[in-house]
């Protein structure tokens, strides 16, 4: 009997998870809020049923309920807004009637706040510094409360900075290289500052491992083994492509043109432990550091050129 996954928010992470799952074992559906985006997703993911969210429209609710009635697994990747988690706000009453064995919620390691470079694990206190991270933590709590009320096991995944094909320095450089336009990424140095990261395929493997063990629930940090400075990652990207890296820019100078969101990321520094991901889920990393991950991105994104 096939397992059926509904991804509430069929974005970057959910799309890679769908690609990771065996189509003979899984039926996948995903949601989006825009019609144009729904058409594009249907074209590039023909095996995935795409539902365009339309609030409480009667015809949509019938379709949505029909999908939920067969849903065995639910992954929530859509971010909360200022009014909380959109799925719980709009569709909790429908979900309560679904035969779901497993619920996964993707949160952020940003809920830990700034630790000035100290390590955090799943037992560390949460001191979110940004409004975005506070909303994530509130959504985590809301989903745990929903699980406790309904008896549905809820697993929370706190994700570090996500990268992969189409979403990293190597991808940016390849686009600039092919289009002969754009502003090349610049290495930025801030003393003592590092970011934790994880390749999207390693996220898919960890989430899949949890899905194969329904009933466990739990909380997992998803990160690779090597928190690293921004400048090291950018310089390595240029090295992979055989290109000279631009001169490193000090953060004090770079920050003058950064967006508020970028500044919020740079305002915090923490190192994220992944021991529980490995011990409880048995999820060994394909890409234990940015070096292996960026090399894999380069190989994958250059494959079409070789065909």
UniProtKB/TrEMBL annotation:
Pfam families: Epimerase (PF01370). Residues 95-222 form the NAD-dependent epimerase/dehydratase domain. It comes from Phaeovibrio sulfidiphilus. It comes from the Bacteria. The keyword Repeat does not apply. Keywords: NAD. The keyword DNA repair does not apply. PANTHER family: EPIMERASE-RELATED. This is SDR family oxidoreductase. Coiled coil: none annotated.
């Amino acid at each position: 009997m096939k397992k059926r996954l509904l991804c509430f928010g069929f974005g970057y992470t959910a799309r890679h998870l769908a690609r990771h799952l065996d189509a003979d074992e899984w039926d996948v559906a995903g949601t989006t809020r825009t019609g144009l985006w729904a058409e594009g997703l249907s074209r590039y993911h023909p095996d995935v049923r795409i539902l365009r969210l339309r609030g409480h429209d009667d015809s949509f609710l019938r379709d949505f309920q029909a999908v939920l009635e067969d849903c065995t697994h639910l992954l929530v990747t859509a971010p909360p807004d200022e009014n909380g988690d959109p799925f719980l706000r709009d569709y909790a009453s429908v979900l309560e009637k679904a035969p779901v064995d497993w619920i996964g919620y993707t949160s952020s390691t940003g809920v830990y706040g700034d630790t000035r470079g100290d390590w955090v694990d799943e037992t560390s206190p949460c001191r979110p510094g940004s409004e975005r991270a506070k909303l994530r933590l509130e959504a985590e709590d809301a989903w745990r409360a929903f699980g406790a009320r309904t008896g549905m096991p809820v697993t929370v995944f706190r994700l570090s900075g996500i990268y992969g094909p189409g979403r990293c320095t190597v991808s940016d450089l390849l686009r600039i290289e092919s289009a002969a336009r754009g502003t090349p990424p610049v290495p930025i140095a801030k003393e003592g500052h590092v970011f934790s990261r994880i390749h999207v395929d390693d996220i898919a493997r960890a989430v899949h491992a949890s899905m194969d063990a329904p009933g466990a629930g739990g909380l997992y940090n998803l990160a690779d083994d090597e928190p690293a400075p921004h400048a090291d990652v950018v310089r390595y990207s240029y090295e992979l492509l055989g290109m000279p890296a631009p001169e490193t820019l000090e953060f004090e100078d770079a920050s003058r043109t950064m967006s508020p969101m970028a500044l919020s990321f740079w305002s915090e520094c923490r190192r994220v432990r992944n021991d529980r991901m490995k011990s409880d889920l048995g999820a060994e990393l394909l890409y234990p550091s940015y070096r292996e991950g960026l090399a894999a991105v380069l190989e994958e994104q250059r494959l079409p050129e070789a065909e």
